[in-house]
Automatic annotation (TrEMBL):
PROSITE patterns: TLC. PANTHER family: TLC DOMAIN-CONTAINING PROTEIN 5 (PTHR31898:SF1), TRANSMEMBRANE PROTEIN 136 (PTHR31898). It comes from Odocoileus virginianus. It is a multi-pass membrane protein. GO terms for cellular component: membrane. Residues 1-19 form the signal peptide. The keyword Protein biosynthesis does not apply. The chain crosses the membrane at residues 61-81, 90-111. This is TLC domain-containing protein 5 isoform X3.
Length: 144
């Protein structure tokens, strides 16, 4: 998180000092911050005790989908355009690559979180389904 914010600040400063590459910096900042409302919604849901609900699941799904689509998918297209363009200076390109690497670091962490949450939900569903099935079969829950 510190690297993300440091690179963002450096990008803004470089764009202001040079008077160029503002479009690239703004695109990166927009892509970096577009998932922020969902991140804040997760925090509010946790604080109010509503995170472990259908709403929490929807917010998590949208966060992962938006992060993957924008920061990784669209980010790759923007990075490619920046790298092949002769206009941005070399250090602006290095900054773009650095921000994209930071996004991938976040992405691995987010995918790991999503995988763990999905597996936990699946096991909960399997357990509940198994108990309901046993109850339907003989009217008694299995106790071993």
């Amino acid at each position: 998180m510190l690297a993300h914010h440091t690179l963002s600040i450096l990008g803004i400063v470089v764009a202001l000092v040079l008077g160029e590459s503002g479009t690239e910096v703004n695109a990166v900042l927009f892509g970096s911050e577009i998932t922020n409302p969902l991140l804040q919604m997760r925090w509010f849901l946790r604080e109010t005790g509503h995170y472990h609900s259908f709403t929490g699941d929807v917010v998590d799904f949208l966060f992962v989908a938006l992060f993957t689509g924008v920061r990784i998918g669209v980010g790759a297209c923007l990075l490619f355009c920046e790298m092949v363009s002769p206009t941005p200076k070399w250090f602006v390109k290095v900054g773009g690559v650095a921000m994209y690497v930071v996004s991938w670091c976040f992405m691995f962490s987010i995918w790991r979180f999503a995988w763990r949450k999905s597996i936990k939900k699946y096991h909960t569903w399997r357990s509940r389904w198994s108990e309901e099935w046993q109850l339907r079969l003989n009217g008694h829950l299995k106790t071993h």
